[in-house]
Amino acid sequence: MLDFGHNCATSLPEEIGTLRNLQYLYLSDNGFSQVPNSMTQLQQLRYLNMTDDKLTLFPQEFYSLAALQELRLYNNQIAALPANSSKMCQLRELHLMNNRLETLPEEIAQMAALQVIDLEKNAIARLPEQFCQLQKLTTLNLRSNLLTELPEEFGKLSSLVSLNLRANRLTRLPQSMGKMKALRRLDLRWNSLSHCTPVIEQLIKQGCMVHY
């Protein structure tokens, strides 16, 4: 483990790539705006924390970290995710709260192991249909975005237990959500839903606690 958080560093040395057995790396609360190419050599890395830094781009080097299971990048200024995500097949948690994301790439479905996604406080207006292929997803936080609708096949997220859609611009819910039998917590407050829809009624019958 290497913990270099809460310092005043603005760059990482290329030599970090020589730590090839490193599994946990903490780089939060510095001034990093990019990472060296040598980070691609950290093939044993399982946890990476670069929260509260100065990232404006999602570093392409991260997509070479094949063993990575948890990635925390919240409180940066990332505006987009690259499409090339096929190598991140072990990633289970992706935390991108409080960035500047407006869209998600269709290729996010290639991160098939994802169980937790936190996208609170971005500017996402829509989700790609491919997002509904994340069959292992259990926790999804989309609070405080700009969503006006959800994909019609959103109900295919059959493993989802906790869903936070608070403070968006939703006017309706897709009928497929009524089939989400694993869902236990749903927050719909501060949207534009006009009434208790049949979908909400069905979820409540299935044991889901709904806030709206």
Poorly predicted runs are: none
CATH topology of the largest domain: Leucine-rich repeat, LRR (right-handed beta-alpha superhelix)
DSSP E strands, number? 10
What would CATH call the class of the largest domain? Alpha Beta
Note the gap between the termini. Answer: 43 Å
Query: Widest sheet: strand order?
Result: 1-2-3-4-5-6-7-8-9-10
Radius of gyration: 18 Å
Please, how many domains? Answer: 2
Describe this structure in words.
By secondary structure, this protein is mainly beta. The protein has two domains: 1-62, Ribonuclease Inhibitor (Leucine-rich repeat, LRR (right-handed beta-alpha superhelix), Alpha-Beta Horseshoe), CATH 3.80.10; 79-212, Leucine-rich repeat, LRR (right-handed beta-alpha superhelix). It is 4% helix and 14% strand. It contains one helix and ten strands, in the order βββββββββαβ. The chain has a ten-stranded parallel sheet with strand order 1-2-3-4-5-6-7-8-9-10, covered by helices on one side. α1 (198-205) links the parallel β9 and β10 (209-211). The protein is elongated, with a radius of gyration of 18 Å. It holds the Pfam family LRR_14.
